[in-house]
Structures are given as C-alpha cells and as structure tokens.
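My current task is to audit a protein record that another person submitted. What it holds is a sequence and that sequence's fold in token form. Thanks in advance; the entry in question is below.
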Amino acid sequence: MKLGWTEQIQKLIPSVRIPYSNYILIAILILGFILRVYKINSLPLYGDELTIVYDSYSILKTGRDQTGEFLPLTLKMGAGRPAGYVYASIPFVAMFGPSIWGVRGLSVLSGLGIIILMYFLSKKIFSEKVGLTASFLTSISLWDIYLSRAGFEAHFALFLTLFGVVLFLYKKYVPMAILWGLAVFTYPTFKLTIPLMFIALTLFMGIKRLLVEKTFYISIVILLTFAGFAINETFKGRSEERFLRLNVLSDTKVIQSSIQKINEQRNLSSLPNTIKPLIYNKPLMYTRILFENYIENLSPQFLYLRGDRNPRHNPGEWGMLYLVELPLLFTGLYSLTKFQKKNLILLMTWILIVPLATMFLGQTHALRNNLMLPPLILISSYALVNLSSKVRLIFLSFIAIQLVYVLATIYYFAPNKFGSFWSIDAKTASLKAINADKNQQVVLSTKIDNIEYAYPVYAKIDPQLVISQYGKFPKVYNNVIISNEK
C-alpha cells in the first residue's frame, strides 16, 4: 500500500516526546519573568547602577572605564568594585545603550537562570517533584524578585555561584571552577564564601571519589589562578577599599564605643587589676560584636519580618522570605533529620557559611546574604512536597496572599515613596538639561545626588569626553556644566 505524503513525512521525522515537567518549568519561567519585569522602569537608576552602566558603555566604546583605565579588573567607581558585572553587561549595553535595560537586563536574566538552576539542583539532591517546587518558589521568591529588578552585582554573583554548585554536583568541575572564579570578580563577599562552599561540597561528594577525577585537579588549578589574580588586586590596594571602609573593625564609632565599654567594665569590676585585662579587652569585645552580627543575619527579624530595611533591596517592606516559610523551615528540617541527614548537613552548612562573610559589615544586608536563599528554598520545597495536599494548599494560599500584597507595594507604592533612594532628582534634572535650548547654558549642581553620574548616562555623553574630565570640576558637556560649588 502506497503511503500518502503526510504519512511519509511522519515516518521520516522521529516522534519527539517532550517531558511534561518541561512544560511546567516553562510556565514557571514565564511567571518569573513577568513578576520581574513588570513596571521595571518605574524607578530610575540609582548611584551604583549609573556608574556600572556607564563603565560598561565606556569600555564598549573605548576599551577604558570612565576613569580612563584600560580593561581594569577592579574599578575605581564603587570604591574598588570587582569588574564582573560591568563586563557581563556589555552585550546588554550594546543592545540597549546606557539605560535601564542596559544595566538591569543581566540581573533579570540572572533571576531566570536561578529559577532553572534551582530545578536541577533540587532534582539532583532530592527529586524532580522537589525540583519543580523549588523552581516555582524561586520564581515567586520575594528576595529574588527584589534582586532581579535592579542592577545588583550580588545577584549575578549568586547566579554564577549557584551554577557552579550545580555543575559540581553533576561532576562538571572545569566549568564550575571558571564560574566560581568569575563570581569572585563580581562581588567581594564571595571571596570568602566560595572557598568554604568548595570545602563543604568536597566533603559532601566524598574526597576519595573526587581524587580519581582528573578534571577535579584541573578545576583546582583554575580556582588557584583566579585566587592569584584576586590576591594581586588586593595587594594593589583597590579591591578591598570598600570593605576596609565599611567593616565594623575599622568603624570609628564602634572602636570608640568599645573602648568606652571596656574602660567602664574595668572600672566597675571588683576583680583584681591583674585579671581585668584578661576578661575585658578588645578581642573579646569584637568577638561578641561579630557573633551578634552573625546571629542577626540568621534572625527571623531579617529573614521573615522586616528584611534589611533598605528600600532598594526590600521595596516590599517585609522580610526576605514569606512568613509562612518559617514553619515550613522547621517542618523541612524535621523531615530531613529523619530521612535525609546527609542533605541536611550540606544545606545547613551552606546556610551557616554565608553570614561568616557578612558579619564583618555591621548590619544585615540582602545583597551580601543572598547566597543563603537557595538552601532555604530547598528546605521549604522539600517540606511542601512531603505535606498532604490539603495542608500544602493552605501554605500556598498564605504565600499567594502575601505575594499579592507585596507586589502591589513594589509596583504601585514603592516608586512614589522611595524615589529619592533611586536618584530620581538626578534623572529629572538630567532630562530637563537634555531638553533645554542648546544655545542656553545649563548648570547642574552636585547638590543633586549622583548628578555627575546621571547626566552622562541619560545624555549618552561620549566616553572620551567623560574620561578627559575625570576628577575635574566643573565638568563641561557642551552647553551643560556640572558644578561642585556649594
């Protein structure tokens, strides 16, 4: 019997069955994308975004950052900013120019990548069902939605680090090492957390199993090479400038307060004078301060109630996680203790590693702590999957209620309340200057926060002109003058 042409085509083309889970994952990605990009233009670029996007624009056009340095690994703007986010944003700047999408496009893409990675990570550690649940919870994660909607270097570093973790578990050691090396040159706190994560994952996988893998040795060489570059940047005195300025051990207020408290303790104590210095001293005082900071970064106040209170990192004005995830955390920990002890040790070690880097900075911080998000979501996802369908529905209902409230705040309230945190005055003044009569001289004062960075971005000033005026005032851009006179 002769086949018709449609039957012949069907015979030639093999039938491809797409797993049902792939459709679910695609739907989750679409949801995550919508939540992250809706009204993303409602807030202008703040100071760090302005300098990041213009450095990307300048390197794209000239090969030099806006200070004139050729292809730097550490940027002067941002007080020693690692250059990872700047270079990775160049494709977006090439497409969209020095604009909101030029600097935030990479962060949005990182958010979508994290959703996918959470699926593969959870699937590897637990099961596909937990993987899809973790992917869904990540797509609606308040913490990740906040980070995706601005050009945060820490969010891209989180993507790179999480990608490295997934590759490690899937025994792809060489690309893992490359991604981790890039993460180190994207956000400073990952210089400490990644080596500790490497140790934790090595113990989780088994040292004996890893030592028979040739590519594992290659990955160590790659990581050491990146470490060498990082150490070199540190000795140049550039990459740690911001840390040296912000850490609690160099904070003059903390130092003075500690000295006063030590003196008070020694004066009021009835211990012998020879014993007092052993009990009341700076090392013990600083140890207590660091321990308190460490615990604060793990506190329900930060994670579930109020977040870090920075409207850029937390425009929803709630905790970084859903309130209902707190009982889920305890439920998940209990279940893991009974059935998944090895995975429990890995996830708890992961969580406890993160504040070791952030405790030096004196306050809770959503960016510096963001590596804590994946293990917390993994525990919640494992708990949800192991609940009965009715109880699971109750938890998801509470999540939906809080999500709607927070989204309404992000999209419709925060832009009006927190505009000053996003240099809105600098944008307004820049646009007025751009639209002014070209024959009329316009003077913009640095009393307007970040105006010296905003105007070159919004006006798309030639980088060569910006470089030529670095460190000088007044800055002259045709008919527009930026003055620092008080």
Notes: The longest strand covers residues 442-445. The chain is about 65% helix and 5% strand.
